[in-house]
Batch of 3 targets.
Target 1
Amino acid sequence: MLIYVNEQETTVPENFLLVDLLRELGFSNRVAIWINNVQILQRDYITRQLQENDRVRIVKPLAGG
């Protein structure tokens, strides 16, 4: 199934969860995610199933001070 992650085409299996995508890409759950311009709550990462042509934006927080 084709999705877009940060504007890059990515192929994932059917019934792939958002948390699976994060693991595959090496991200922790401590990121902000939008799917099709809708922000996803962290508690939903483990249940949100990806759909064909979803546009996923993953943003890591910046540390600073």
Target 2
Amino acid sequence: MSVRVLLVDDQPLMLVGLGILVGGTADLEVVGEAGDGREAVRLVRVHWRVRALSQRTDLRNAPHGS
């Protein structure tokens, strides 16, 4: 059973790089990509039932003033 991963980064080049790295790992499956945290939450709510959520956060990706 593979771990399903939703990639989130505000830099498209980072998303591509992460997709290559994670997609090349046998026990990880990239199930989607988002350009920011809000889009990620929307994708999770709309497309997946989530029992547990693990994240890697880039604090520079956080929206300012929220």
Target 3
Amino acid sequence: MDFIIELDKIIFKFIHSLSGHSGIIDWLSIFFAEDSRIFMGGLFFLGLVLIYRKYPDKPLYYILVATMIFLLPVMTSAVLREAIMRARPFVTLDITPLIEQSIRYSLPSNHTAASFAIAGMYLAFLKKHFKPVLILAFLVAIARVHTGVHYPLDVTVGAIIGILPGLGLYYQEVTTPDHNEKHSNKHSNNKKLNNKKSNNSKKTLP
């Protein structure tokens, strides 16, 4: 465990040492680290609206499930942080963070857990929008390290906690017989449609 902690500090020092060399990169890092609650929160509520429209038969049920996918990791992260009690890097190391941050415990990163929980919600219910949301969550995690308020291990654990509920629900869905049957029927229908178009094309040839 001591080896992991020391490696974590080495990686942190390297990433944080990249700050202060580019105003644009520092500004972007500050934006993603400090304002993630605004744009990720916006994506959360947008996701709820899209879920409401996607599942008109049971909209409130799916909205409740989506909300729990978000809340469970956030609450878990908050409990673990108080139990582990790891100090922030700017408390134990001789560094100055790029953003103001209250001196609370560091592991896991709650910002990262919340961001990846929202990405997990999109994975479970709105898969075609998942990748851009995941990229934003990843940028939040990197920014929290770059600005000096979290260690890499903090955001890694936060990301795992955040994505797990959505990933579990997605995996459960894709492995159910109903999903496989629907996918098989869709593939079969597409094949029949393509064959029909091919036959029609042959008939129109002189």
